[in-house]
Amino acid sequence: MMLNLLLWACDAPIKDDTSNIGSTVQQIEESPIYWEESECSYNGGDHICNLSLPTADGDFDYLYSHYGEVIVVDLSAMWCGPCQEAAWNSNSVSVIADGVTWITVLIENLDGDPPTQEDGEVWGDYFGIWHDEIMLGSNDNRDADGLTGFANTGWPYFLILDKDLRIRTVQSGWNKEDIITNIEILKAE
Predict the structure, then answer these.
(1) Residue 7 host element (H or E)
(2) Half-sphere exposure of residue 107, counting CA atoms within 13 Å on the CB side?
(3) What is the pLDDT of residues 148-178, one digit of tens each?
């Protein structure tokens, strides 16, 4: 008798159940990242480690969310003249090299301190860069060996990543022609 009651209860219609109205099922995509965290670094030839930083628009960005794109990572300091020149040219390089993602990682503000969201907004507004393309870092994102952070010894410092997030070019200093040439090589592959 108890078994019949349980079976009947499982088969009983549910009346006026509106708990699922408006709900959605989120499809979770499998990550294209196939390497282990211990297999990444910030050195040429390696897969870059996943950088997760706040952006100038108040959100967060994850470098791995750009998998499948050719990416220029521009490490800059606000007080640096060549960094400012690179910022002026970042939009023109992106136009010339259509289909390239340019991400600026600000490491220091004008006083040499970690940049604030306001600093990132000022940088973006002044140089015409979308705020979501400016990540706000600090000197904690630097490492002389390139194992746990950028190994830059000068400003600006560029990493050009292929679509598989492998660091294909490391460039210290601003040279627009070299940046464009290296981007075009990657896009042709």
Answers:
(1) helix 2-11
(2) 22
(3) 999 998 999 999 999 999 999 999 999 999 9
Q: Which amino acid is at 110?
A: L
Whole-Å CA distances, 101 to 28, 48, 49, 84: 24, 15, 17, 18
The H-or-E segment that residue 115 falls in is none
Give residue 3's identity as a one-letter amino acid code.
L
Angle of helix 81-96 relative to helix 176-188, nearest 10 degrees, comes to 40
Q: Report the distance separating Cα 181 and Cα 170, nearest Å.
A: 13
Confidence class for position 37, pLDDT limits 50, 70, 90: confident
pLDDT of residue 25: 53
Query: CA dist 16 to 1, 24, 188, Å?
Result: 28, 19, 59
CA 180 to chain centre: 20
Spatial neighbors of 147 by CB under 8 A, at least 6 apart, are 41, 42, 43
CA distance 154 to 124: 22
pLDDT of 143 above 70: yes
